[in-house]
Amino acid sequence: MWWKLNTLALGLTVIIVIMMAASGSINTKHLSAEEAAFYYGEFPTNFLWGLASSAYQIEGGWNSDGKGLSIWDTYTHQQNSPINSGHTGDLACDSYNKYKEDVKLLKDMNAGFYRFSISWTRILPDGTLKSVNQAGIDYYNKLIDELLKNGIIPMVTMFHWDLPQSLMDIGGLTNEEVATHFADYARILYKNYGDRVKYWITFNEPSLHTHFGYSFGYHAPGIQDPEIAPYQCGHTIIKAHALSYRIYENEFKSDQQGIVGISLDAEWREPLDPKNPEDVAASHRAMAFMVGWFAHPLVYGEYPLEMRQLIDAKSSKEGRTDSRLPHFDENWTKIIKGSLDFIGVNQYSSAYVYSKEGTIPGIEDSNVDQKPIEEEPVSTMEWLRIVPWGLRRSLGWISKWYPGKPLYVTENGFPDLDTDGIHDPERINYFRLYTNELLKAIKIDGIDVRAYAAWSLTDNFEWGDGYSVRFGVNYINFSDPVLTRIPKDSSKFLANLFKTNRYSEEDVWETAQTERIEL
User: Fold this and answer.
1) Mind spelling out the 3-state secondary structure of 425-484?
2) What three-state secondary structure class fits 50?
């Protein structure tokens, strides 16, 4: 059924159309009636609502005021660009100059926090302590102060895929020396911002970054080495995270009282046949290879057993004397184990999985294959089907295997095209259903989820798709040199949710009828 909703109460008379049933129910063969039903209730009083972004995707100023080159600068500047329409992040949203406009958007949306990332090369131009760029330090000081002035908590990601090119020149994340350089960088951030920043995320989506950047070559740095490189990169990332965590723990935590975590891609993998034990096992293996790859060492000091056994066995069968999955020695195990205060969860979609013997080293190590959940609606991106219940199940899996670790949803969002404009009913429907599954996870399942960040604050540079795909809740016309920010309908929906902190049958978004109503 098509529903027309009126947003006059949110400051504009806008009629938006959302395709959803009156009950907000979800149709799928794997859900009970209770699981499919829309749930009305309140989020915890201290629950945090916010939005997210990343430096390369929004800042621009790629060579301004002493900033060094990152691998994304190099990757997008190639003569035969791998990016749609040859787009780059050279200007992007120009948030380097327009950060006050971004903060105003956040305030207008009733955001409690803003998750943004710091450009490593804006702070350390070559990625090392050889040179500290004061202009970069100053920029983030201004952003943090502007956020706090407007009552918005800063949540900082240290690394969102933009490795310094100079460190790429020595092998990038395949070189464990980079872990030490990252720890030096983290110490600089703690020293300069830790008096005001209390939420730190070391790495964003390391599984996705290592596979897309070093296995398939879809993203910077464009390397295609699926057998070895991803596991080398993952090993370096885990060490870098742990070193940074221990620095905070030993040198800063007692005074600054912050917490340090990591954001992991956690797309749910549903058993194709939940009554088939092999498919159920495949679901667990898929999650272990995606989430557990990083969470398990940081909680327990070692890789998941499923990864260790399969990769070791396949490496031996390939005639290798050493496993493609590196080992941690006793000293590193001590450093790594327990180096995590919270787990950030980035969740967009889900897929079916089933057991299948893998024959391609690296790519098929988990002995799992997958297929789309075709009964659920698809977005403009084929991989992103609207599967709200997958968020709840993903949170449940993580809380089961890593108990005692608070969860923060650090990304969740919906794409449309550059031609879709500011009226985005499908995005509203997406946010409504996904955040309701989040409410179920908290209230029904008792999972300790403390925050939710929608991706993203504005339309931005969407990696290989350039500016053709948009996740923003605020529209930007990238052909307009002024880059004016214009709120989409979804920003008003989120502003209402952030303010009310609940889903109620009496709420404006729930009481709207098929005809226009005046509020």
Assistant:
1) HHHHHHHHHHHHHHHHHHHCCCCCEEEEEEECCCCCCCHHHCCCEECCCEEECCCCCCCC
2) strand
Burial tier of 506 (Cβ tally within 10 Å: 0-12, 13-18, 19+): exposed
- For residue 499, what pLDDT is reported? 97
Cβ density class 223-250: b for 16+ within 10 Å, e for less: beebbbbbbbbbbbbbbbbbbbbbbbee
The verdict on whether 205 is a catalytic residue reads yes
Predicted TM-score (pTM) of the model is 0.94
Whether 426 sits among the annotated catalytic residues: the reply is no
Place of tokens 């009310």: 500
pLDDT at res. 429 = 96
Q: Which residues pair with 486 in a beta bridge?
A: 475
Residue keyed to tokens 């999955």: 325
How many residues are recorded in the chain?
519
The token duo for 122 is: 């804006």
Phi then psi dihedrals of residue 397, to 5 deg: -65, -45
Rounded Cα distance, 362 and 230, in Å: 8
Handedness of CA 61, 456, 160, 85 (dihedral sign): negative
What pairing do the DSSP bridges indicate for beta strands 268-271 and 199-204? unpaired
pLDDT at 28: 56
Beta strands in 72-170 (DSSP E): 113-117, 153-159
Residue 164: phi, psi to the nearest 5?
A: -55, 135
- How far apart are the C-alpha atoms of 427 and 473, rounded to whole Å? 9
3-state helix, strand, coil in the chain (%, to 5): 40, 15, 40
Tokens 């929608």 map to which residue?
A: 454
Selected catalytic residue, list 205, 306, 426, 437: 205
Choose the catalytic residue: 146, 270, 306, 411.
Answer: 411
Q: Which residues of the chain have pLDDT under 50?
A: 1-25, 512-519
